[in-house]
Each structure stands twice: as C-alpha cells, then as structure tokens.
Amino acid sequence: MSKKHDHDHAHALLPPEPALRVQAIETLLVEKGLVDSAAVDAIVDAYSNDIGPRNGALVVARAWTDPEYLDRLRKDATSAISELGFSGMQGEHMVAVENSENLHNVVVCTLCSCYPWPVLGLPPAWYKSSAYRARVVREPRAVLDEFGLSFPKDVEIRVWDSTAEVRYLVIPKRPVDTDAMAADELAGLVTRDSMIGTGLALAPEAS
Amino acid sequence: MDGVHDLGGIAGFGSVPIETDEPVFHAPWEGRVLGLRMLMGFWRRWNIDANRHSLERLHPADYLSMTYYEKWVAGMVDLSVQTGLITREEIAQGHPNPDSEHLTPPVDAAGFLAFLAVGRPSTREIDAVPAFAIGDKVRTARHMHAGHTRLPRYLRDRIGEVVLHHGAHVFPDVSATLAGDASQHLYTIRFDGCELWGEGAEPGHTVSADLWESYIASAG
Predict the structure, then answer these.
(1) From CA B148, how far away is CA B36, in angstroms rounded?
(2) For residues B193 and A153, is the Cβ–Cβ distance under 8 A?
C-alpha cells in the first residue's frame, strides 16, 4: 500500500503485513462484540469443505441425463438448482447457459468479481485478476487460447458480463462416448473451468 | 464513477495468471477476511452496492496492486469507520475504546449458515411495466454520474438487443447511497463484438450484460 495517498483512508492505520492486519482487525471486532469468531470459523469451514464446484457438477450431470430437469433448468435455473440443495448468497438469481456445436459461453465480471458461489464456491484468483476481467470481453478467443481452448470462427463465443445480481452457470457439452455413464460418474467429468467457460468437460479416459 | 475498477477492454495486463491446483484460500487470513466481511454486513449499516462502491473508491494504485482479500479488508474497515461501528482511534490502538459499549453480534454461526442458504434476493415487485421487450434494439447511455454504477464504460453509447428480462431489481446507483431500493426493470442486452470494438474485433463474438432500464433507450 502506498503511504503517499492513503492518509485519509482509515484502513491505512492497520499494520501493513496482511496476516497481522487481519489479526488486528479481528481482535478489535471480536473484543467490541461486533462479530462472533466462531461464526467466522463456520464460514471458513463452509467454503473450504461444502460450497464448491462439486455442487455445480451435480447440476450439470443431472441436466445431461434428465431432460425434464434440463427443461426446468432452462425455465427457472434458481429453482432447479435449489432442488439439488444449492441456493442462497451470490446465487439468488441463476441463469444456466448451454454450450452447443456452434456456441460457446464464457462468464466474467468486469466491474468486480461476481461469481455463482452456491454452485462453484469462491472464485479462483485468475477470475478476479485484472487481465481476465479486462481482456475476455475484448479478445475472448485469445484468452480461451491461454486456457488451451480454440474454436472455429463459425462458433460464436458468447461472453456474459455479470453486471447485476444475476449469476451465470455454463452447461458444458456432454463428452462423447458417455452414454452408458450414470449421473454420479458424469459429475466427475465436470470441471470448475468448464462451468465458467474457460474449460471443457473431461473425456472419460482423462478423468 | 469512471474508476479504475471498470476494467473491461483495457490493455496491458498481460496473460491471465492461471494457477493449477489452486487452494480455496492462499493463506488462513484470507478466510478470516471472508468471514469478517460477511458478518459485519449483518449490522446493516451498508449493503452490497455500498460495499462494492467502497472498493471502487480505493486509490487506483491500491486497487490494482492489492489482492482481492486485501481490498476487502480495506473496504470493510473504511465502511466500519464511516458508519461509526469502530473509530480510527480504536484501529490505531487495536482494542475498543474503554468507554465504548460492549455489543452483542447480530448473528452467530448457526444463524449465519441458515442465512447463507437463502441470501438476499434483489428482485422487487414494482408497479411500472417494463419499457422494453425481448428483441428490442436499445442504445446505452453515453454519460454516467460520479457515484456507483453498473454500466461499464466499454458498453456506453452502444447499440444492443434485449435478450432476457429479469423483472425488477434493486437499482445499485441509488442503493449504494443507502437512499432506498429505487428498483427498476433489469434486462440482459447482447452486443456484437464489432459494435463494441470496431472492425478489428475478434471474429464471431458477442458480449451480454445485465443492464437496468434507465441505462438504456430505444434505438428503434
């Protein structure tokens, strides 16, 4: 943090080293009775162990295997995702967008780092990076190439900039030769990046 | 606000810093920040829009150099002081003022986990009927005010097509000032890559964004 320009910001009063800074502010907030440190523990535990991309993978696998579920997901994704037990903060208003032979979807938040937490957990650092936020709306093919993806020119790259409280979940294409696989096996092929649009679902032998 | 946070289309950041096998938190303090920020929100002295605006008001050099969780600490501390939950003296001392009242946190662990599954929906019922329909061509506003807004610079004064209508949502430009919801109809507008970036745009891409009714006007 530069000391030249932050004299009017209260946060400049904290220690400069992040771990010490956070310890200092947590101590103050707990001693003053503003927060319960056991509640902080519960939040860390929830996002470390329960709320992550396995949730979204179950949604995708169900959509691949259950046409009636896919229909509900298309009509009201928030409600369809909630059927599987995933709902709430940063996923209050969900939209599912499906990849096809001639359409590939990819999600960003150029203004901050909005991300569908109930189905994907917390965003990876690259999703929050200036480079991703700046570039994927302007040169999506170049960015996808850095993730190892390339598409013919006649495939539309459809970028979704999450500027409101609507959150987007990409439904990747189902890999070929997976007809015999059940939904719980298929979920193992669905990566986090495939649900952001910077990856594809894995081929069965690669999983 | 034409701030440095409004990154869409800016050049010079280099390649995307992809990290394999990335942990959820890179250090334990990041998780503490996540929890503290969520819990401080329960005092209801600010909302999600004011919180975003607190990050946008960081100095541009800090905004670009701080990590995500460092920005969260800074924004939370600045908002907590501005709204009187803590004082600058208490931060400097590291402890509550001896004369200050000892408070009771508004939510405990069980209460928070119950809230987490519900969240805070931003949809509202309003009397106004939507001014636009799916398929309408619209032009986005050219100028924006100095406060918080969710119309990015790269989408201003551009023509796009309405592709989704989401009902009415809390309007961030007003909500960030804590002056009420001022809800408006919200639409997804799709823009062609060439409309945004000119003839040199990459072939075959569109950008869709969720924009409030007052950001757009009919383009016939």
Answers:
(1) 23
(2) no
Backbone φ, ψ for residue A157 (5° rounding): -95, 115
Q: Is the dihedral of CA A18, A21, A24, A26 positive or negative?
A: negative
User: B28-116: what fold?
Assistant: Cyclin A; domain 1 (1.10.472)
Q: What are the residue ranges spanned by the domains of chain A?
A: 15-49, 52-206
Question: Is residue A144 within 8 Å of A151, Cβ to Cβ?
Answer: yes
The interface pTM score, or ipTM, of the predicted complex is 0.97
From the list B16, B150, B204, the residue facing A131 with the nearest CB is B16
Q: pLDDT for B113-144, tens place per residue?
A: 999 999 999 999 999 999 999 999 999 999 88
Chain A interface test: which of B101, B184, B210 (most A C-beta within 10 Å): B210
- One-letter amino acid for residue A202 of the chain: L
Distance of CA A12 to CAs A96, A116, B74, Å? Answer: 41, 31, 8
A129 flagged as catalytic: no
What would be the CATH architecture of the domain defined by B123-218? Roll (2.30)
**Does the structural domain A52-206 have CATH classification 3.40.309.10?**
no
